[in-house]
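Supplementary Text 2. Reproducibility record for the structural model of the 252-residue chain.

All settings were left at their defaults, and a single model was retained for analysis rather than an ensemble. We include the record here because the model underlies the residue-level annotations in Supplementary Table 4.
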Amino acid sequence: MIDKILQYLNNEMPKDERKAFEIKIEEDKELRKQVELNKEIDRFLVKKNELNDIKDLVINIHKDYIEKRHTKAQNIKRIRAVLAAASVLLLLGLLVASIIVVHSPAYIYSHNFTAFNTNKITRGNSDLNEQYMLWHGLYQVQNYKQVLNNFNKLPANYQNETSITLMYSCALMQTGDYKKALVQLNTATVENNTLLLAELAWYKALCYLKLDDYTSAIHEFNKLTTTSKKHGKKAKAIIKKLKRVNRGATPK
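Retained model, structure tokens:
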């Protein structure tokens, strides 16, 4: 499947096959997640130039070898030594690249995002609005496009609830609209509910991460280190990773 993903991302897939693959991406959550992760990793590595320097070094060494392979025999040992050194550098470069990927925002996001869990949300029988029940069912089966399409059918008092704002925002994030999700999360109001406040901060931080606003992401993660038992440890670990790769990103 990774070959298909790479063909798709590199525009090497025939038109009909590409159209069918895009439909499959739309229907398959795990495939969509893999495609998104590969996109983000490619974008992240383009920003970082560590591998480019190593690649240029190896190319130059190879040219040097071709030009000098017909020279005197005593030069062969020196060339072999240079090639051996280049191999070591290449391995070190690949190791550095793997570390960079693990610390990349794309990797951090994909390994920390899970849609808001609604299992703990309870309502009395009088609150079980039929449209809400249908909408909530769509969310539970991860039909996020229909969640977005049917949001405005909910009663107004439902739309303003923080838990529903979290569900709606997660649906936006799952469909790639991180800016709109952030607007929703920033307009939510919560009084005396530390759990919901923590969830809002967590998803805001992840949105900022996807929007390459690492300073704001760290700011939100930093709040969680002291206020959330659920997210505190993960937030501390993420802050460390972001600071290693993005030296300019510091808490506000």
